[in-house]
Structure formats: C-alpha cells, structure tokens
Design a protein that fits this description.
Number of domains: 2
Strand content: 15-25%
Shape: elongated
Radius of gyration: 33 Å
Helix content: 40-55%
Structural class: alpha+beta
Number of strands: 10
Oligomer: single chain
Strand order of the largest sheet: 2-3-8-5-7-6
Distance between the termini: 29 Å
C-alpha cells in the first residue's frame, strides 16, 4: 500500500475535514483555479475568434493576394493590367491557389435628389466568387451578367442605402471623371483628356458586413462598366485577385507568384494593403497573453495559500509521522498529492464552465458589440481544442512547480517542536 496516497486521501476526504479552518480556504483555491481556467479559455477563444472573423471579412471583401500594374499611383484606380492567357492559367493552377479573378475599382459621386456622396465601385464579372457576399445579403439579389453587354445592376451596402434612403430596384445615378489619351493637333502630341461621364445603375441588392471601412461606400457593378468608363479593352482589368488555400502561408505564396511574374508586375498581400488593421489584430495577442499570465498568477497564489493553511493546520500530524520514521520527502509528497487533487478539481470545473461559455456564445451570440467600433456585431469565438489542452497542461505544470515551494516548510518542522504544540 502507498502510505502517502492513503494519508492524502484521508486528509482530503470531505467527511474528515468538518470544522477545519482550511475547508473554506481550499474551496476558494478551487474556485480561483476554475475561474482562472475559464477566463483563459474565453480569452484564447475570443482573441482567435475575433482575429479569424475580421480576417475573413477583409479577405472576403477583398482577397489574399493582388496582382497589379507596376505603375503605382496615389489613387485606387491603377493603370490597367492584362496577363496573357498562358500566364493566367499557370498561376490559376498553382497548388496553393483557390481561385483567381480580374476586378477593377472606380471612384464616383452618387447623386440623389437631396444629397451627393462619394462611392467606390468594384467591377466584377460572372466568374467572381460571391460566396462571402451571399452570407451578408440582406435584401434583393446578386448582380446578373450578360454576355457582350455591360450590366446595369449594382449591389450596394446597407450603410449607403440607409444614409441616402436607397431601395432595391431604384435607379442610382453616379458621376465619374474619366481620363484617356488623345492626339492634340496643336501640340502635335498625345495628351491626357479629362471628361465627366455618368451611368444610371439599378440597385439589385443590399449587403451588410458590419465592416464600416468597406460598408460605408463600397458597391459592386459589372466589370464591363469600369472598362468602358476607363476606355479599356475587354482583356484589361485593374488587378487580379488571388485567393489562396492556406492564409498562414500568405508570405510564401506571395513570393512564389512574384517570382513567376517577375518584377514587371506588383504583387501585394492583404496584410500590406490593410497593414493598420492587421497590426492592431497582432496586438490582441499581447493582451491575451497578459490576461493568461495574470490568471495563472492568481490561481497559483490561491493554491499556495490553501496548501500553507493545510500544512499549518496539520503540524501535529507532520510531527507524528516524522516521529514514526517518515522522511521529509514523503511528507511533502502527501501534501503535494492533496494539492494536485485540488488543482485537478479546479481544472475540471474550469473546463466545464469555460467550454460551456464558449459554446453558448458561439451558437447563440449572446454578447453583442458595436460594429462601428469593433467591425463585428457580436463577440466572435473560435474554439481551438489544441490550445485548450495546452492551457490545461501548462496550468497544471506551473501549479505543480509553484506548490513545491510551500512544502519546504515541512523540512523546518521537527517532531519535538510540533508534538509540544499539542
């Protein structure tokens, strides 16, 4: 029989500790660990969920990689680009590429009877992947595309619709400034001519992503409209958007595409284009680490306090078993066994409450947020079981190491001194 385990089981038996001063302290220690673990689970899940949700919304409205003309200007209307069919197919068939599509942007002024507002039109074609937008379509339908004809459908955001009181099936008049080269007989050279042009669109649908940076002025139209406004041919686009299969390999995939195209084209990533948002997301990791460290410190302090009370309450027992020949190491083992049982209880309840809270928020979205500030309308949660396992193992190991310290007091207790106290 393992005598240390037997004594530890007797001491930790609820029937044996009635009236002991350590009972409420031990309960507080268990509650402290349970709360700490629950908070750590929630912290990790919320940080991961928030980063994942924001990243998905940015890449859903834009893309992962963007191939554009090397001639960069301050506008989001770059020089047109046209990849030959062979190059396009080679990139499209790369193992890490999910899909590749041509798009273009055009700034305009939306005019209503009472107001004018700036808008950004994103030109897309029939091959454009609308899977993300479909999830956030709140009214109407997606744009329809006709072969050889520039469609008049426009998909607008709910933010724009609310501000200008626009409704589905209504007409939307947008003014543009277009530029193109013309021959000037006076100077006998090509010059850039600017002209005002307009287009009447029909609102086909309304989407709402709650991402104010895009919802405020982004709309989707037929790519042919942008091509004609810019005097481009049907093979020219503003850029090529590439969606990759693994976002974690973004930088490596970018280098592969850049090497393939050479430096005649610019290849950028969503992290570069929206660097301010991604830097902000990275800082969330620091906040999460700080919270986890604080929770571990609180949990270990609670358990150290509980263990010290247990030892001091049983100094007579310590002296007695030492007098009977038990070594300091074996006595320490008794109290470590008790403490680790308490840590185990705390971890168990912490897992139950933490995982339950995460699942409730994930499926019922009880806690809401102001989307104008946080870009999402609820607290996003992403449950990662590997991280949960790591938190459990890490907390257990840290508590075990820290609990070795208070058991050193046992080495200072001698049978003569402790038995005299009785």
């Amino acid at each position: 029989m393992n005598i240390e385990k037997f004594i530890a089981d007797r001491i930790s038996d609820p029937k044996q500790d009635k009236g002991n001063i350590s009972k409420p302290i031990v309960k507080i220690g268990i509650i402290g660990i349970a709360l700490g673990v629950s908070v750590m689970f929630l912290t990790v899940s919320i940080v991961l969920g928030f980063k994942k949700e924001i990243t998905n919304r940015i890449t859903g409205l834009t893309t992962d990689l963007v191939v554009s003309n090397i001639n960069i200007n301050a506008s989001n209307e770059p020089e047109p680009i046209s990849l030959n069919k062979d190059t396009f197919e080679i990139i499209k068939k790369l193992p890490f590429v999910n899909y590749m599509q041509g798009t273009a942007f055009k700034n305009g002024i939306l005019k209503t009877e009472t107001e004018n507002e700036g808008v950004v039109l994103k030109g897309v074609n029939k091959d454009y992947n609308f899977d993300f937008i479909k999830k956030y379509l709140v009214e109407g339908r997606l744009p329809e595309f006709k072969e050889g004809e520039a469609g008049k459908d426009v998909l607008i955001s709910s933010s724009l619709a609310e501000r200008l009181s626009l409704k589905v099936n209504e007409k939307m008049l947008v003014y543009f400034i277009s530029q193109h080269e013309v021959y000037d007989s006076t100077v006998k050279d090509m010059i850039i001519k600017y002209e005002q042009r307009s287009r009447n669109f029909v609102i086909c649908g309304v989407f709402k992503t709650s991402f104010s940076d895009f919802d405020n002025n982004l709309s989707f139209v037929d790519l042919k409209q942008i091509q004609r406004l810019n005097y481009w041919n049907e093979n020219q686009v503003g850029n090529y958007e590439i969606r990759i299969k693994d976002f974690e390999k973004l930088e490596a995939n970018l280098e592969t595409v850049q090497d393939l195209l050479g430096y005649n084209y610019n290849v950028g990533s969503v992290k570069e284009i929206y660097s301010n948002i991604f830097i902000w997301l990275e800082k969330l990791d620091i906040n999460g680490i700080i919270i986890i460290v604080l929770m571990v410190i609180v949990a270990t302090i609670n358990m150290i306090t509980a263990l010290l009370i247990l030892i001091l309450e049983r100094t007579n027992m310590v002296g007695l078993v030492k007098a009977l020949g038990m070594s300091n190491g074996n006595v320490r083992k008794i109290f470590l066994t008790i403490s680790l049982k308490l840590v185990g209880k705390g971890l168990l309840w912490g897992n139950v409450f933490g995982i339950a809270a995460c699942l409730i928020q994930q499926y019922f979205k009880i806690v809401k947020l102001d989307s104008s500030i946080y870009y999402v309308e609820y607290v996003a949660v992403d449950i990662n079981w590997l991280y949960f396992l790591g938190l459990n193992i890490g907390t257990f190991i840290i508590c075990f190491v820290m609990l070795l310290l208070p058991t050193l007091i046992i080495t200072k207790l001698t049978p003569i001194k402790t038995l005299k106290l009785d």
